Amino acid sequence: MEQERPAPAPLTRSDITKEYLSAYNSVCALLWLSVFGRVVLLLPIAGYQSIYEAAGDFTKWTQTLAVLEIIHSAAGLVRSPLPTPALQVSSRLLVVWAVVNQFPAATTSSPFYASMLIAWSATEVVRYIYFVLNLKGSVPAFMTWLRYNMFYVLYPVGISSECVLIWKASEEAGEPWKWVAWGVLGLYVPGSYVLYTYMIKQRRKVMKGKQAERRNRAVTQ
């Protein structure tokens, strides 16, 4: 008689969390890749003035999906400290909903809107793909390099573009919203410092780990 195959082991909470995060990161990578593709393909053809019409609403809802990352951190599904995703996600939601969505005439025809989307989408495509591969336990060296080096350029481009758009919106906004916008710009200085130094610390930690792995492999060979 043919032996019965053993029943598959039930999924643990860790397995379910890993599958969920893998699916979430995969979807987000595809969404941001779509944003990046729309901007890069359209920019040389129709100019930066056409970017919002082609990608504005799509970007707004794609970024809004990132609210889940605050929940992931608060629920302990990921190791990142809660202030980090909360700060980044809230600042971007402020830009897409309270700045660009409310003052389209002042912001959407600006080249800084296009540069912001390029910086955001390039960063996020690499970040989410890195997370997917990391959950599978196999991250190519070039992807690690992109993840922990691209931010040196893309973060300043994205943050400075956001600041310009907030400033442009403040020129159109009446009081007291103009003062609120200027207050937000003031908060960008310490907020940007926190995000930037966090990434530098993460880079240092990851690169030290990679160097230790290479030394261990060299010893065992």
Structural overview:
The structure is a single chain. The chain has helices spanning 13-46, 51-64, 67-74, 83-100, 104-107, 111-135, 141-147, 151-172, 177-220. Helix 2 packs antiparallel against helix 4. The chain starts with 12 loop residues before the first helix and ends with a helix. It has 221 residues and is mainly α.
Question: What's the order of the H and E elements?
Answer: HHHHHHHHH
Given as residue ranges, the uncertain stretches (5+ residues, pLDDT < 50) are none
Tell how many strands the DSSP assignment holds. Answer: 0
Structural class: mainly alpha
| Largest sheet, strands/sense/barrel | none
First-to-last CA distance: 47 Å
Tell me the strand percentage band.
under 5%
What is Rg? 21 Å
Helix-strand layout with pairing:
Elements: H1 13-46, H2 51-64, H3 67-74, H4 83-100, H5 104-107, H6 111-135, H7 141-147, H8 151-172, H9 177-220
Helix pairs in contact: 1-2, 1-6, 2-4, 3-4, 4-8, 6-7, 6-8, 8-9
Keywords:
221 residues, 0% strand, 9 helices, globular, single chain, mainly alpha
Short description:
It is built from 9 helices and no strands. By secondary structure, it is mostly helical.
